Amino acid sequence: MEQTQATEMAMQHLQQLVDNIETVIKGKRSQIKYILTALLAKGHILMEDNPGTGKTVMAKTLAQSISGAMGGDSSVGFKRIQFTPDLLPMDLIGSHIYDEDKKEFVFKKGPLFTNVLLADEINRASPKVQSALLECMAENQITIGDTTYKLNKLFFTIATQNPVEMEGTYPLPAAQLDRFSIKIIFGYVDETTELEIYNNYLGIANNLQHIQQVLSMQEILNLQEQAEQVTIHEELVKAVRNIVWETRRHPEIILGASTRSGINFLKCLKAYALVNGRTFVTEDDIFDLTIPVLDHRLMYRNKEAKANALPGILKTEMDRLHKLRITQ
Q1: pLDDT tens-digit map of 217-242
Q2: How far apart are CA 35 and CA 156, in angstroms?
Q3: Residue 214 CB neighbours (<10 A)
Q4: Domain ChlI/MoxR AAA lid, which positions (predicted)?
Q5: Mean pLDDT of the chain
Q6: What is the domain class of 2-226 according to CATH?
Q7: Mean pLDDT of all residues in 66-80
Q8: pLDDT band at residue 196, thresholds of 50, 70 and 90?
Q9: What is the mean pLDDT of residues 241-266?
Q10: Quick check: 157 and 163 in contact, CB under 8 A?
Q11: Which of 8, 37, 71, 95 is deepest in the core (most CB within 10 A)?
Q12: Is 152 helix (H, G, I), strand (E, B) or coil?
């Protein structure tokens, strides 16, 4: 009975959060669900698209919807880093400065010490700077010299990148891409929604300035725990295994998915089910998440392979699952 009440409460909280975000972000329910999936899976998300599609506003809205650690008036910590070619690792991590009063060097924390981090246009910085994110995203800590600093329990990175064809961009290293649970194309809204935005852009801007804090940080942490309790059928676990293995065998894929990728896939499936109001994973969840979770982790022989290899693997596995007619 207690588990049922906890689940119902989780559903209510998630609906509150989605509704609150949609007062500012119009026509992006699918993208919002992917972002919340990465958050509940204790992962991070990479959003690719051209400037001006609302990625930065999305990150701000999410952060401002969550109240601080003590449930007070302030929202959770939110920092935005604009990645540029001249950015240095210390600009992210922080540096030691000399304290005249104490007569010693003290560490001044950088913007990575926050709850929700927006890494804007991450592929405009050099790989050396991008690598400064690796430890904090993977292990929730930052090591400087002999000292290791633990980050907050809630640490969520929303990174944006420009299409790789744009001038002044660097491809993200494979190790960095692997730290993102999900990668999505944020995309433009449809014509009807865009007209609505034009007619009410002042009201939307006002909503962002006065966004309500609908959940506390502790409630977000509770949702992360609730996501871990979502059930997944053994055949669906096998499906994840099969897809991961096939990426390693496919002749058009140079680098397949790792075991860590498969574990991350399972976490995202559970979180995605909860975001969609269920306590169990379905075949449709695998269909929706395979490409957002795995595609950016793979290396293909060419563009044609990138367009066809993973969708082909997914279709084969979905056909197998449909024949089984799994029931929860």
Answers
A1: 889 999 999 999 999 999 999 999 99
A2: 10
A3: 17
A4: 246-305
A5: 86
A6: alpha beta
A7: 68
A8: confident
A9: 95
A10: no
A11: 37
A12: coil
**Exposure string over 228-253, b if 16+ CB within 10 A, otherwise e:** eebebbeebeebbebbbebbeebeeb
The continuous run of DSSP H or E covering 120 comes out as: strand 116-120
The predicted model scores a pTM of: 0.90
CB 29 within 8 A of CB 73: no
Check pLDDT > 70 for residue 213. Answer: yes
Give the Cα-Cα-Cα angle 147, 153, 157 (nearest 5 degrees).
90
Let me know: does 46 contact 180? Beta carbons within 8 Å: yes
Q: What residues does 99 pair with on adjacent strands?
A: 104
Look at strands 253-255 and 299-300 and give their pairing: antiparallel
List the beta bridge partners of residue 80: 118
Highest mean pLDDT among 48-52, 111-115, 125-129: 111-115
Name 183's bridge partners: 46
- How distant, in Å, are the alpha carbons of 80, 114, 119, 268, 284 from that of 187? 21, 27, 18, 21, 22
What mean pLDDT do residues 93-116 have? Answer: 84
Cα-based torsion angle of the residue sequence 78, 40, 25, 118 in order, rounded to the nearest 10 degrees: 30
More confident residue, 295 or 202: 295
Domain coordinates in residue numbering, the chain: 2-226, 230-324
Q: Torsion angle of alpha carbons 33, 39, 43, 45, nearest 10°?
A: 50
For domain 230-324, the question of CATH label 3.40.50.2300 is answered with no
